Amino acid sequence: MAVQKLPLAKALNESLRKALETDPKVLIMGLDVGKLGGVFRITDGLQKDFGEERVIDTPLAESGIVGTAIGLALRGYRPVVEIQFDGFVFPAYDQIVSQLAKMRARSLGTVKMPIVIRIPYGGGIGAVEHHSESPETLFAHVAGLKVVTPANSNDAYWMLQQAIQSDDPVIFFEPKRRYWDKSEVDTEAIPGELHEARIAREGTDLTLAAYGPMVKTCLEVAAAAAEEGKSIEVVDVRSISPLDFDTIQASVEKTRRLVVVHEAPVFFGSGAEIAARITERCFYHLEAPVLRVGGYHAPYPPARLEEEYLPGLDRVLDAVDRSLAY
User: Fold this and answer.
1) For the chain, which terminal residue's Cβ has fewer other Cβ atoms within 10 angstroms, N or C?
2) Do residues 290 and 258 lie in contact, with contact meaning Cβ atoms separated by under 8 Å?
3) Cα(153)–Cα(147) distance, rounded to whole angstroms?
4) pLDDT of residue 263
5) Low-confidence residues of the chain, pLDDT below 70?
6) What is the C-alpha separation between 298 and 182, in angstroms, rounded?
7) Which residue in the list 131, 141, 195, 262 is annotated as catalytic?
8) Distance (Å, rounded) from C-alpha 151 to C-alpha 237?
9) In whole angstroms, what is the distance from residue 134 CA to residue 37 CA?
């Protein structure tokens, strides 16, 4: 077995390398992805090994980058676009939601849009607004887009492979503050389907559902709760659109309680959809209302305040205690 321990960032780099080696139609494009290797070095070394026609440094023009990728997809290529930071995607938002997301339906399925848009997202790196946002719900609301996010290195490697192989556009959110976290990657054993949730830790008293950067936080919460005799199950949602409600439902039917956690603001966040759907599906199983923990409905704060803004161990544990108190 080809198992090695890699930082999440390196797993993404290896995944892109594998995709470039496997399919000559795969292209990588974005600001500073070539000579610099990306601001987080996710594309480090790829232009040197595959050339400037496969790993393309673009002008600072996100709308133009995505528009060019759409044209390349129409000609049979599989572009992988990097948006340097989460908040930089909005100049390309019109291209993504008005063109990219609609092209396949508009053509009655005759036109494929195999484009992956990689977006480092979330806080925790001491950056300012436009560098620490969590805009996943804006894209999950748009029919025609798939929205996924890995929480560990193995998922980063395989989910990116699966996204690149998809004939539909995929918004691939990368939890930037987890880039340097190491975990095992098995480059031979393919995990589950791209849009399947997974049980990250089994438990019996309460379910924590999270994705991306918050999965590690929830695993820490489960470990802390275990010291007090509480058994917490952690579901890594992995795919935000489509959402694997069945896995979450099966967990909640067992534990009878659910707390949903994400960095994005709670107000109109993806946790609201999970809470509503699970309440509908599990009404007679629930022993407490579904609770949500997330960011505040406010602009992202200066770096010195982000620890107060981001959901942490104490805020999630408080929600766990409130749920178990019912």
Assistant:
1) N
2) yes
3) 18
4) 97
5) 1
6) 32
7) 131
8) 9
9) 23
Neighbours of 238 (CB within 10 A): 26
Distance CA 315, CA 187 (A): 36
- A 10 A CB-CB count for 165 gives 16
Q: What is the pLDDT of residue 190?
A: 77
Closest CA to 148 of 161, 131, 130, 132: 161
Spatial separation of the C-alpha atoms in residues 221 and 159, rounded to whole Å: 25
Per-residue model confidence (pLDDT) at position 189: 84
**What is the number of other CB atoms lying within 10 angstroms of the CB of residue 247?**
19
Annotated active-site residue 195? The verdict is: no
- Token pair in block for residue 144: 């025609």
Instruction: Say if residues 236 and 151 touch (Cβ distance below 8 Å).
Output: yes
Query: Would you say the C-alpha torsion 68, 86, 136, 237 has a positive or negative sign?
Result: positive
**Matching residue, tokens 């999630």:** 316
Q: Which of 79, 50, 63, 54 is nearest to 167 (CA)?
A: 79
Which of 285, 197, 281 has its CA nearest to residue 234?
197
Report yes or no on whether pTM surpasses 0.85: yes
97 DSSP 8-state letter: I
Alpha carbon distance 219, 209 (integer Å): 10
Structure tokens at 79: 């572009």
Contact 185, 5 (CB under 8 A): yes
Measured in Å, how far apart are the chain's first and last C-alpha atoms? 47
